[in-house]
Amino acid sequence: MRNSWLVALRELKERLGSRSFVGMMIAGPVLILVLIYFLFAFGGEGQQKWNVLIADPTGIMDKKILISADPDVNYSFANGYVEMNEFRDAKQFREFDALVEINEKILSNKLSFVFYRENPSMRMQTKIRYQVERRIEEVMVSQFTDLTIREFRKVKQPLNMAFRNVYDPMDEASDLRGWVGLFYGALIFAFIFLFGMTILRSVTREKSNRIVEVLLATVHPNQLMIGKIVGIGIAAFIQFVVWMLFVAIGLALMRSYVFPDLFDPSHVVAMGEHASDSFFAATEYNQFVDLVYERIQFGTMTFYFVLFFVVGYLFYGAFFAAIGATSGSESDGQQFVLPLIFLLCFALYAGYYSLENPESGLATLFHYLPFTSPVVVMVKLSLGYAPGHAYEIWMSLIILLLSAAGVLVLAGRLYRNGILQFGHRLRFGMLLRWMKRM
Amino acid sequence: MLEVQHISKSFFRKTALEDVSMTVREGEIFGLLGPNGAGKTTLIRIINKIIDADRGVVRINGDLMTQKHLSMVGYLPEERGLYKSMTVEDHALFLGQLRGLSKRDVKMQLDYWLEKFTIGDWKKKRIEELSKGMAQKVQFICTVLHEPKILILDEPLSGFDPVNVELIKQELIEMRAKGKLIILSTHNMKSVEEICDRVALIDQSKKILEGTVSEIRESRKTGEIAIKFRGSMIAFVNALWTNFELVDKEILADDRFIARLKTRGETNFDDLLRAMMGQVRIEAVWEVLPSMQDIFIDLVTPKTEGTHA
Fold first, then answer.
1. Domain of B201?
2. Strand arrangement of the beta sheet that strand B181-185 belongs to
3. What ipTM does the predicted assembly reach?
4. Which of A121, A206, A341, B42 would bridge with A46, disulfide CB 3.0–4.6 Å?
């Protein structure tokens, strides 16, 4: 135990002293914060400014639209009918990205067609629908009522239908939250891969510079392997904690200094006449902000992240150590990492699959399969477990833990038998023999 | 006392050691000799518990050797390495603590050895800054840092310049005087003759020879006599007549020679002296013992039909 700890401390010291580790410690959270910044700043924006032609032959809209200066959309009006083919082919319409057809029936059937050249983003679709709808609403209010538009809007009760999971009634953005779970799972696997490769390189380096023989004269191979995995694991954990700390501080700073208006309710009220337009934009604009600051349960997610990260790392780390020990050279070892990379990629796919089909039988299998459970549990956790089903997380964790123990035992045998073999070509039969040998 | 009893080891149908036994005592430098691939390193690894023997046991002072005995052992493997990015001190601390020393003791011991080898200023140097010879010294220090009772050194002199070879040899002699049990695996036969008390020769996985250096050399002698004289070589050869055979000669000066002779029939040392009396001026006469190098080559060179050792 003492020897394993000494080996772990040496590994940890080496990692903490390496430039790449310190570099990643800073670069990682900076990258995440930059990504979050862009999601906040441009998350709701389309790729380009759209030129929209409204064909309004009966002049219903009177060449007016509520938003006169939308930075994303520029509206123009045509007095006559514009056929789809004409819009598509005629030279004078080339400058327009979309055609909105407003015919005389719109006041009765409430139907309008929009023809576009390039698929508009969801945000752009919502924007055009919203802005045209508002103008039609104005026309209808003036034609069919005696109310002013302001009076109408006061009495108008828009009905928002929120579709909610009976087991998770507070969850209004489960799909986005599911992606957050997948992000957490991907983070686990990114760390496992990065630091698994560190284990592999560390083992092969000790083999190639032959210090391993000096160590083995004092330390049992299993102690050496465990020490190595634990030491590098602690380094990975420190890296993660620092990342989370930096990201948390960065988010707090962003909230206070970079996007203060996104969190200030008075900002929306003060908008006056166009308050609701701005509010519409703000709520959509803030979807990520809302998700990051309000909806993600960082405490719970991080708790389970740590648990599954630790056990998942032990599970995969043992594979990396065994590959390092059994390979004849560093390049040989890297070649044998390929199947592990496939497994890690498969786990990510399993996470995505579980996000799309959370209740399917396969998702349940992936939830308990040790190769995939760290990422699938994260996804399911973010989507929400049904009340009384939290035991599923612990069952998955126990299976992963037992599997990790089994893999560590097997990896220990491979490590013990392979660590002093140099320059050989690794064959599957050889691995089997080493695995059988105590 | 370290006893190796009937050790056998195979790797996937290839026999590395076959029924090898030997005993090494305290206050003794024991030479473990053999050509490359003979099984020496396998035996050393078994003694160090790095690998397990298929059959046979290793005992220390009568007890079966276990993991707990390893703190008594200092092992310097032939293929030795160091962590290049670590400083000499950190390296010593890591290996010293693994062998059961406290941080304080490691630092004290390290200072002692660095001082002894007059390399005190290396302490904070990173291993990658050291030359090969310097790194070898650090490896040697790390091996003896915990004052082991048993030292197992595989080619400890390789990579050193002659001055440092002498330094290490003197250290080993000092350690022997302090009662340490030292196993020295080397191909440097000159060193074997100089510092080893007893040797064992392993060839093709079997022990083929064991004994003290002098016993072995004595037992392998061929009756050769060397004579150092001043005078005429022609007169010397004439005086030999048919009783002695001139094997080799070395010219030291115009009239000074060393000649190696073999006796024929019943002639002996006294006959030689009598024959030379008045013919040349004898400066020294001695019995030629085969060098360990010659014995080694003779024993491990594959014999063709019709020749024998």
1. 2-218
2. B73-76, B150-154, B181-185, B28-33, B198-203, B206-212
3. 0.78
4. A121
